[in-house]
Amino acid sequence: MINPREEVVTEGLVKLAVPRMEEYTRPDGRIEPAWMPVFYNPSAVVSRDATVLVLRVLHGSHGFTFIDSLAGTGVRGIRIAVESGGEGIVNDVDPRAVYYIRKNIQLNKLGNGKVEVYSQEANVLLNNLTFTGIPFDYVDLDPYGSPAPFLDSVFKPLAKKAVIGVSATDTAPLTCSHFRKTLRRYWFTCVDTDFEKEIGARLLITYIFKRAAALDTSVKPLLVFMHRHYYRVFLETRRNAGEAYRLSTECLGYIWYCPSTLERGYVKTLSDLNDVTCMSGEKPVPIGKIWICGLGDKDFVNRLHDEAGSVNWLTKDTRRILSMLKNEVELNNPYVRVDKLCSILGRNMPKYEELIDTLRSIGIKASRTHFDPRGLKIEADTRALIEVLKSDPTTR
């Protein structure tokens, strides 16, 4: 039964009883999920769409086990069970959340033991499940704020090879808007750049990687994106200390950055910066240590894109982001804010698609980025982009 202060919404292939959202609307007309007695954020549907797609690509029609550790209304875990065929645990420490989880399990006819409901603090649950002998193929961590308080626990109940999905809504410290909190929470010294949203993604991966490595586990990004107020990363995990060490030497390094010319690149060690000079003659600023390998796996993202074409319940935003990532994931250099670069050069803004076509015509891979509508990713030295902008008559 649905009471007058509840409503039923549809997301993907499931129906959900949630608190009546019109009662928790801000003056600007937007839903404020933090005001609800149980957290349900309709704008995070892209994150949940991506979760289902990732698990469908990884497991197909084969069964797998999962943990939704911070479930709220249970929407993510229930969608995993209904749309991806998983069996597992849906957990929340709040009794009000457990009420909605049970109601939504009944609403979606999952009362066959496919989903078990727990009500424990997430760290306690994940640590206790370590001793059951049941290896879990997927663990989801979707906190309100930073995932940092839960990361040491999330790796413990995993199978030897598994996947984790992690959300972070603390975008201000991740993008260095609150540099003191960035230093406290993520052990990272901020540098002001034009690609701060990509810094946030790389910093989140770096922190997860370090916590995993401390537990003799390696992580490798499969899918990484930012949408509205949150980051979402999916990482393949392996219980392999040697692989963690190999990736630490290969993928943790420094981004060098020239604030006056917006040049940027990667080096493995600070001593490598001795050979780098900005066009202005200044020495570049080092950023790191930070993840310098790819933000996702190209083949995996292509498989996700193909899988998205086989289902009809994804949102337009999900399809748009996947379409952009299909091109973007091939290019590892941090994006360049073209408007800022044009301002430095004293040039007018070109049309993005014409600029991309010009770059491609001279053999430079280029793509828009989902991180910032003003950003451009190129697989070349920033000086090549500068030369193209200077030679384009439309920018004068």
Please, could you describe this protein's structure?
- There is one protein chain.
- This protein is an alpha/beta fold.
- The protein has a domain at about 5-250: Rossmann fold (3-Layer(aba) Sandwich), CATH 3.40.50.150.
- It is about 35% helix and about 20% strand.
- A 7-stranded mixed sheet has the order 5-4-3-6-7-9-8, sandwiched between helices.
- Helix 1 (about 45-60) packs parallel to helix 2 (about 75-85), helix 1 packs across helix 10 (about 300-310) and helix 10 runs antiparallel to helix 11.
- The protein is globular.
- The model has no long low-confidence stretch (mean pLDDT about 95).
Question: Regions with pLDDT < 50 over 5+ consecutive residues?
Answer: none
Relative strand content: 15-25%
Biggest sheet strand order reads 5-4-3-6-7-9-8
CATH class of the domain at 6-252: Alpha Beta
- The CATH superfamily of the domain at 6-252 is known as Vaccinia Virus protein VP39
Number of strands: 15
Number of helices: 14
Order of helices and strands: EEHEHEHEHEHEHHHEEHEEEHHEHHEEH
